[in-house]
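Reopening this ticket.

The earlier resolution said the output was attached, but the attachment link was broken on my side. Pasting everything inline this time so it's all in one place.
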Amino acid sequence: MHKHLLFTVTLLAAAMSASFANAAVMTKADYAAAKTRIGAAYKADQKMCADLKANAKDICSAEAKGKEKVARAELEFAYTGKPADGTKARVATAEAAYAVAKEKCDDLSGNDKDVCVKQAKADEVKALAAAKLGKEVAAARTEAAEDVRDANYKLAVEKCDALSGDAKTSCVAAAKATRATQAAQAASAVATMKPATVPAMPVAKKEKKGGC
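Inline output:
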C-alpha cells in the first residue's frame, strides 16, 4: 500500500479533533479552492491504486474514497461552522473507516472473516453512537446505546460460532445475559438522567480437546 494513502482511524480522529476545536468559517474563495484540491487528490490517489492487484487494490480504493469523503465533510464544517456539519464530519469518518475495515476482512476466510466483519461493524456503530451523543440529546443518547448493545451482542455471538456443543451454548447464553444487563443499566441510567456504562462482551475461548 502506498504510504500517502494509508488510512488509519486513530490518526484521522486526532486530526479531526483539532479541526473541530478550531473550526472557523472560511471564505467562499478558499472553500472553492479546497474543493478543487480534494478532487485532484482523490483522482491522484485512485490512479496510484490502479497499480495494485486483487484485494490490495480494493482496500486502496476504499481508503481513497474514505479520505475524500471525510475531507469534503470537514471542509463543509470549516466553511459553515455549524454544529450539525461537525456531526456529519464525524459520521463520515466512522463510515469511511468501516468501509476500509470491511475490505480488509476480505483477506480472511471462514469464522475469522465473519468475526472481522462483525468487529468492523461494531466499531462503526460505536463511532456513530459517539457522533450522536455529541448532540447532547436524550433521544439520541438512548438510540446510540441501543445500537452499541446490539452491535456488541452480534459480535459476541459470531465469536461463539468458533466453539461447539456446551461451550457454544454457554457462550451464547453469556452474550444474551450481558446484553440484558446492559439494557437494565441503560434503563436505570435514563431514569436517573445519567449516562449508561457498557460492559465489555465476554470473549469466546477456544474449546480444549476432551471437554470444555
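Reporter confirms the inline version is readable. The helical segments are 9-21, 28-49, 54-80, 83-105, 110-133, 138-160, 165-192. Residues 165-192 form the longest helix (28 residues).
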